Amino acid sequence: MRLRHVLRTLATVLAVSTYMAIAPAHAATLSLWTFWGDQGAKRDFIEHAVKAFEAAHPGDTVQVSWYDKNSLYAALKTALRAGQGPDVFYAEVDQVEYIDNGLLLDLSNRLNWGDIEPWAKQAWTFGKGTYGLPLEAWTVELYYNTKLLHELGFNPPANHQFDQKTFLALIKAAHAKDITPIALGVGDRPYPGAFLTEEALLKEVGAADYGKLMRGELKWSDPRVVKALTYVKSLIDTGALPKSFSTLKLGESHAYFYSKPGSVMFLMGSFYPSRAFNPPNQGGQPPDFPLGIMQYPALDNAACNECKTMAVGGSYVVNAATKHADLAVAFLNTMATPAMGKLWVETVMGQTGIKTDMAHVSGPHAGYFKELAAVNDDAKYFFGLPSQVMQGKRRDAFTQIINQAFPAGILSVQQVVDRMDAVQ
Amino acid sequence: MGFGRPLGRGLLIVALALYTAFAASPFVWVFVLSLRTTTEIYADPYGLPLPPHFGKFADAWLGSSYDVYFMNSVAVVFSAVAIVTVVGAMAAHCLARYQFRGNRALYFLIFSTLIFPPQVTIIALFQILIEYQLFDTRIGLILVYVSLQLPITVYILESFFRRVPSDLFDAARIDGYSEVVIFWRISLPVAWPAISTTIIVNTILLWNEFLFAIVLISSDSKRTLPIGILKFMGDQSNDVGMVATGLMIAIVPVVAIYVFFSEKLIQGMTAGAVK
Amino acid sequence: MTGGSVASSPAVATSGVAAGPIGLRAWLRLSDQPFGAILGFLLPALLFYLAFTVYPVLLTIYDSIFRVLPNRPATYVGLANYTAVLTTDPTFWQAVRNTIIWASVGPVTEISIALLLALALYAKIPGMRFFRIAWFTPVLMSYVVVGIIWMWIYNYDWGAANTLLRFLGLGQLVRSWLGDPSTALPSLILVTTWMWTGFNMVVLLAAFHSLPAEVLEAAELDHCGWMGKLWFVMIPMVQPTILNLAILSFVGKMKVFDLVWVTTRGGPLWSTETVSTYVYRRAFDWNTFDLGYPSAIACIWFVIVLAGVLVLSRIFRRHQQLEF
Amino acid sequence: MAVVELIGVTKTYPGGTQPAVQGVDLRIEHGEFMVLLGPSGCGKSTTLRMIAGLESITAGTLCIDDLVINRVPARDRDIAMVFQSYALYPHMSVRDNMAFGLRRRGFSRPDIERRVASVADGLGLGPYLDRRPFALSGGQRQRVALGRAIVREPKVFLFDEPLSNLDAALRTSTRGELARLHQNLGATMIYVTHDQVEAMTLGDRICIMSSGKVVQIGRPMDVYSRPADIFVAGFLGSPPMNLLPATIEVDGGSHAIRLGDQRVPIPATMPASDMRPGPVIFGIRPEDMAVVTADSLEAQVATVAPLGAETILSLALPGVPQEALLRAARDVALRPGDHVRVACDLATASFFDPDTGRALSSRLSVGA
């Protein structure tokens, strides 16, 4: 490419003439790019970890840049490609493209794995390498407003799980009273809309076949899949979800549930407290909000009604291009201790991939955490969200169809099956 | 004129008023929202700002690194506009003033870049800036902005320089000045009306630029205002009142420029389209 | 006399005027022109142009026949990216369809409304300056700001659009405007119309005002009524302006990115995906890092836009106009 | 101090087939006021711009004081030029306009001040020194342009139609000022115009150009009375010289001019012996014809155009395809259709070769 070289030379002349080299003079400043800036408890946790790290490594500092999630991903996608980016950053396990392209440091021999739950480690293991500190873990939960539920004349059974007929009746009753049954929105996230469908599919076909379905080894035209979809469709057609579902953002959907206009239930990850337990003037729930937790309804003749999704959420990884690999790993290890795990559970009010004694949680929201534990007492977990298991076009299709279009009521069961099988 | 009849005239005014409401009310609304708290807004989205919370502007400015984004925008936009003005004026002066083979071809080539879809260059620019270690630097963004606004600048200035009588340059040559000094001491001052127009237009367009800013800058500390607003939106999308305040802060400089230079700005933005 | 510059000996005085390589000078027909000055004036712009426009375009074409991933050399794939885009990528065609709809509907609505408004203003409505400023303002805002404002306007629960409909007793029309694939694209087109109509109107108004008064007076003498004057005199005379505006608007819509990215990110169900957002998504927001495939999309799109421009320049030539 | 000499100067524009200026030979003596006169497009402005250094010279030699300056850039030629459009710098005050050229030449600040002030006073521009050009009247702008040239005290002044943007009255008075200026400065001046009145009144010599070539160079009255060809004859004078097709007839020893159906005998006192018989173009200026009472050409009045100071008659001569113009007194009492008799002052008449248009050497004036 002669021309390319000529042009490149010309461009270099121009670029170099204006470029002033800014050498990385500071030898011991770790850069950290992370989400969670607007979630008080998690932010406090990270800042606590930073302080602990800085105390243990005098002279070294951590510079934290707080991003919102989409901006963070956009910034990382370009910065990492450019061979730049922060030393440590927030990632989730669905971002295998980082690993495929060698952008993450293999932590398998570096991190203090003894204090990490094996299933959480497994989530970050790809081939021979393990790449992330699975800090956050969460389950898909069905939160509800106990007061509203009572007013509608329903009470959850002892096992916290309605059967599918009662649940449909509940939806109908709420809808008849012009109360949105389930708050949910997909305005800025590619996964919450899919909760409604994926939990039904998981229960209906069981964890093993569910995994096959996600990996493209089981057809969506399977009768069990169609049966589950048909039930979900009946919920959707009854008006289970907000009219503004398609544009409702994650943060907005929280407020939709507990402040305005209010809904009976809220299908959300167990990271719910990270927003809801913020002070009310920062978008948190009212102090006296009657929060309850129940299980996603049991489907008739389903393979595994105790099955539910557990996912590794926000994790921290190390940039393969970092100049401070050891320091970066040391920072992760600062978080990978049972004490920090306990702090996480107590303050964030959610699960973690760090081994922690969950029985001794205390603090103002201890009651919430006890209820969460009780609901999940005999649960069987499927680890991973569909979007974490799927890749490429199938993931894009899943996001558009199962996360958006189907719950929005745009597609029939048959269309869903056809479209999903088309990309298998 | 045929609109003399009172009825027709009345209808016309009503129609115009309706359109004006359509055009202007979103801004009025956001302005009102920017002075109210989110709690007030949720209670009544269309209420009046009573009492107005002017303190929100300080909160938005200090609480969300808005000052950083704002100063980044100022630095990037002003540098880019300064460079593109000088470089563009030089090229326009040359294309308008000297006859040589390829003059028109070159002009048309630069001019035709106006219609290039940016996606044709964005990916490669990303790679190129990495190659030159200019990715995620304000200098890199400035250089890209200069090349982005070069065609429109050359276009507006060339048509102006073309109307400057060549006798003026000949007189300066006879007065003993070299071509460079003539450009500096005659062309630039004489073309000041057109140059100020391009400065205003380029400032507004770059102030609002989004695509290149989001691709070519990744560090939070180097981002410009449009990206900053978006971050605001992502982090605090519940806090409608605060987002509205953030929007107003972004709008104010543009509105200020508009208020001061409205005629010139309209001239500049409409340059070439009238004929 | 002050001239010390000319020596008294009968020598031939030479300096400056004709430096530069003779062959290039001759080719450029530069006999009278100072070569050095021309080069000096053009060089910075040319360097910018070559480095940040020509080189990127060529590099994009080059990339499009490779698979370009980080941390490894690009692998040559021939035309595979092109065949994939053209044959197995329905999203691309959806994006092309949306973009072309936008680029064809946008100019028509903007300019026809603008034409009506400009005519109204031409009839010397009181408060003209105020109207003009109010109508021009939207175009000054960034798409990010506009996008956020209109997301609120289209908000299902408390947005102005639904509130107005409920107020007017048209509750059955209330919907999630950006959430419904059938209304999302039209809703966004309305936003660009809102933004650009005022601009078009101001330009048209200027064009009307620059019409020679004699022509209108002549039309008056010919007993043309107001409507007659409008159809047979004014609109034909501003036709070049209308054409320029149409092209400007067309090209602007072919580039739309910010508005979509801020509001719908291309959803729901790809109903607002434009070529710009799709290229961006594939290049910078996709779960592969490949830059070859999006480069191929960009190249194909470049050809489509180029074809459109050639068609438009045909129209240009017919109208003896070479300005946009 | 400054002699400007053009030797075979030719200008061909790039891509042009026909030279814009072809082989101009012209020597302008020191202190001379030379007027380049011709219709638009004749190459006179191009010639001037070549002298100024604003256009390159394709072929030939341009000398000032015997130094070849073909390749000396304009800024080093020590020439001042007054443009038709004045070319005042719109962003500078009158003072700065005038001082601009001096600054480049390294004059001291007080020196510049002094020079500008003195020239401005001389031109009556003193009160306007701090104004911008747009705040001046046309005449004032013209003076600024003049002042800008004068203040430089150049070797050579060039004027490119400097008066054509002024109204008639101002033009006349400025013309007078220019003449005085030339007398006072005694500098070499080259003046381009298409206005023959300016050429006649201002020029020491006139150089008439047509189609890129010099047609005639000479003192104004010489050129007027002895045009070198029918172009000059038709260009100079208002109304211009009558150019009528005629035939020289020789009958025995006596010569006569046949004009249509009539003959004009050439008196024996006039030296016509070298005139050969055959077709010629007979040129006679309107003021050299007169309405008489007897014994001359018969004609019919076609139109009567009273101009105030005089009346121009347009006459149809029998058998002559075009009408002849006659400059008569203002009180002439004739109406269209009247038959008159006219006489020609043959001593002032010119004869041209009908094929080449060049003047025939023969003249009828006594003692020629």
Protein described:
With 424 residues, chain A is of the alpha/beta class. Chain A contains 17 helices and 15 strands. Chain A folds into two domains: 23-135 and 313-356, Periplasmic binding protein-like II (D-Maltodextrin-Binding Protein, domain 2), CATH 3.40.190; 138-311 and 374-422, Periplasmic binding protein-like II (D-Maltodextrin-Binding Protein, domain 2, 3-Layer(aba) Sandwich), CATH 3.40.190.10. In chain A, α2 packs across α12, α7 (164-176) packs parallel to α9 (223-238) and α8 packs antiparallel against α9. Residues 16-26 of chain A have low confidence and may be disordered. In chain C, strands 2-3 form a two-stranded antiparallel sheet. In chain C, β2 and β3 form a beta hairpin. In chain C, α4 packs parallel to α8 (181-209), α5 packs across α8 and α8 (181-209) packs antiparallel against α11 (239-254). With 368 residues, chain D is α+β, with helices and mostly antiparallel strands. In chain D, 23% of the residues lie in helices and 33% in strands. Chain D is elongated. Chains in contact: A-B, A-C, B-C, B-D, C-D. The interface between B and D is medium-sized, with 18 and 28 residues.
